[in-house]
Amino acid sequence: MRSVLTITLNPTIDKNYFVDRLVPDHKLRCANPRVDPGGGGINVAKAIGRLGGDALAMVLSGGRTGAYLQELMEREQIPSLVVNAEAETRESIVISENSSHHQYRLVLEGPTISATVQKQFMLQLQDLNPFPEIVVASGSLPIGIPKDFYASIGKLVADRESKFILDTGGEALVKGIQGGVYLVKPNLRELSALNGQMELQLDEVDEAAQSLIQEGKASLVVVSMGATGAMLVQRDSYRLIPAPAVPRRSTVGAGDSMVAGMVHALQQGMGPEEMVMMGVACGTAATMNEGTELFKAADALRLFEWIRRQQ
After folding, report:
1. Catalytic one among 14, 36, 167, 256?
2. What confidence tier does 1 reach under pLDDT thresholds 50, 70, 90?
3. Is 115 helix (H, G, I), strand (E, B) or coil?
4. Domains of the chain
């Protein structure tokens, strides 16, 4: 068993179309799309592989699109453990407008997952032997799965004395950290919601994140701040890790790339600050590529060394 397991409960087949200009009521011709296996945990496992690490992607998937998703993961050499969802896996579409470099994302809600499938998923997770040292749950919850499902996974992981990392949003995030996680990666909007506020100011971020730690909801909080970088918040300290300025072509997969960088750093025995530096480097490198490509390892490692020299 690999030391890292990623969990994707609502995977997708990502299709990225490129058009010169979006014009209503016109037939818009474009080349065949770029097609990638998608969903938070799949992206994280894929990115860890690019860094030379090794992760197993546990995926809830089914139907004809699920079979195609598995084929795409095999093509990308992403090791996987597929639990049959007994429903069709979703597809999502990104339209990139060449003239403006704008992106339009059509994200489908996905299938409805039965209680029987949910139970089967938890049983397969529970039966992993040896159990992974790090479990990363990333992405949205499909219809039918209760909002506290990530909290149930977190409890199982904690019982096995492993680290649980959660990257999701909305009510799934609020309820997912109630039992405590090792690391959570909210953005500013999500951190505001976790603290019951409409919008936090920058000088309130550290205190808001530390409150999550003091309440036992997380051991570490890494607040994603987009092009600004990320803030590492620990119980008694905080530090902003700035992101280098790079040409930005796409933000798709940047958050997943950031998580992958941090997990890989943990595998390499790095401390929290270098962990976030690697995360920022990978997330920034992902924005340098078009569509759903994630990052190139050479770009990520070069940016990591640059960030480390600036500290």
Report:
1. 256
2. very low
3. helix
4. 1-145 (3.40.1190.20)
